[in-house]
Design a protein that fits this description.
By secondary structure, the protein is mainly beta. It is built from 2 helices and 12 strands. It has one domain: Deoxyuridine triphosphatase (dUTPase) (Deoxyuridine 5'-Triphosphate Nucleotidohydrolase, Chain A), CATH 2.70.40. GO terms for molecular function: dUTP diphosphatase activity; magnesium ion binding.
C-alpha cells in the first residue's frame, strides 16, 4: 500500500528527551506504533490508581485521521495495566503533548520507568458526520431491541 497517511512528530524539549524513542512500528505489519514513557522519574501506580504519563512528543495528523491510544496486551495480561479512557482519542488538530492515561487494574503496585513501552497508537480514518434531525427514523428488523435481546 502506497497511500500511507503522513504523520509528523515533534520531539518536545529535544535535549531532555533525546533518549526517548519516538513512536514506531515494531514489526513490518504492526497495526500500532509503540509509545514510550517520557517521565523523568519512575511513577508507581498503586492498585486502582490512574496516572497521566508524558511521552515527550506532539504530533500532527492529516485532516480526516485520528490516532487511538490503546493498551499493550502484554502489560495488561501480566500486570493488569490498562488505559482508563481506552481507546484514547488524538484529534488531528491537537498539538499538545500526547499523554497516556494508564490505570492499574492489577493487585500489585506497578512502576512505569522512563523509556518503557506503555501503549500503542493506531492511525486511522475518521469521518465527521453530516447531522440531520428527524421526527421518525427508518424502520429496521432490530428496532429498539438491544443489550442481549438476541440471546447471550
Ligand atoms: O489518551 C489521550 C486522550 C487525549 N489526548 C489529547 C489529544 C486529544 O486531541 C485531546 C482531547 O482529548 P479528548 O477529546 O478525549 O478529551 P476531552 O476531555 O474531551 O478534552 P477536550 O475538551 O480538550 O476535547 O487530548 C491525549 O493526549 N491522550
Ligand atoms: Mg474532546
Amino acid at each position: 500500500m502506497t497511500d500511507r497517511p503522513r504523520v509528523a512528530f515533534k520531539r518536545l524539549d529535544p535535549q531532555k528527551n533525546s533518549d526517548v524513542p519516538l513512536p514506531r512500528y515494531m514489526t513490518e505489519e504492526a497495526a500500532g506504533m509503540d509509545i514510550h514513557a517520557a517521565n523523568e522519574t519512575p511513577v508507581t501506580l498503586a492498585p486502582g490508581a490512574v496516572a497521566l504519563i508524558p511521552t515527550g512528543f506532539s504530533m500532527a495528523l492529516p485532516k480526516g485521521f485520528e490516532a487511538q491510544i490503546r493498551p499493550r496486551s502484554g502489560l495488561a495480561v501480566k500486570y493488569g495495566i490498562g488505559i482508563v479512557n481506552a481507546p484514547g482519542t488524538i484529534d488531528s488538530d491537537y498539538r499538545g503533548e500526547v499523554k497516556v492515561a494508564l490505570i492499574n487494574f492489577g493487585a500489585d503496585p506497578f512502576t512505569i520507568n522512563r523509556n518503557e513501552r506503555i501503549a500503542q497508537m493506531i492511525v486511522t480514518r475518521v469521518w465527521q458526520a453530516e447531522i440531520t434531525v428527524v421526527d421518525d427514523l427508518d424502520a429496521t428488523e432490530r428496532g429498539d431491541g438491544g443489550f442481549g435481546h438476541t440471546g447471550v
